[in-house]
Amino acid sequence: MSEENDFTPMFGLGAPNDGYAQYFIGNSYLNPLTSVAECGVGLANVTFEPGCRNNWHVHHADKGGGQILVCTDGRGWYQEWGKGPQELTPGTVVVIPAGVKHWHGAARDSWFSHIAFEAPGENCSNEWLEPVSDEDYPA
Question: What is the pTM of this model?
Fold first, then answer.
């Protein structure tokens, strides 16, 4: 985080999200809150710098699965394929069923954080797809 920025997420900034950087436009940060290995449920705080968003992606599962986002700080966007973007603000909860192509990230002028929860299911996997184009990204 740069010195001129005073954004402090509720659940901490975490470390640069280098492991998934290839699936993001801009910089994101990851702060794991729980461990699947320890408690069976993985929760992570993901923070996006202004304008950062992840690629289109799909959470697959034979049964159950999907993703839940609990928005905690700043302002962002969520969009499902074929639908208009939905503004995300603190307190917004988004339930994303398995098989739904979508993306999420910060607004152009705001840092943004959400807690991401991978819903339990059978044979779950993530498929990362194309970047969200500047033309498709909300103004």
Answer: 0.92
